[in-house]
Design brief:
Layout (H helix, E strand, L loop, with lengths): L1 H11 L3 H33 L10
């Protein structure tokens, strides 16, 4: 996200208010979308590895 913001700044030199309108919603959408993908991957790995509840050896 930071790389895209720097690229936009150097390529187009937009006003500061455009950065304030553009980047917070994009960052929030990327974060929420990434959480959904990450949770799906974790569930897939649990199923693939037959994960169980942890137990302590006595």
């Amino acid at each position: 996200m930071v790389g895209l913001a720097i690229w936009l700044e150097l390529a187009a030199d937009p006003p500061w208010w455009l950065h304030l309108l553009l980047w917070p919603p994009l960052a929030a959408a990327a974060t929420l979308g990434g959480l959904r993908v990450a949770k799906g991957l974790l569930l897939q790995y649990e199923y693939r590895n037959a994960a169980r509840e942890g137990r302590l050896r006595s």
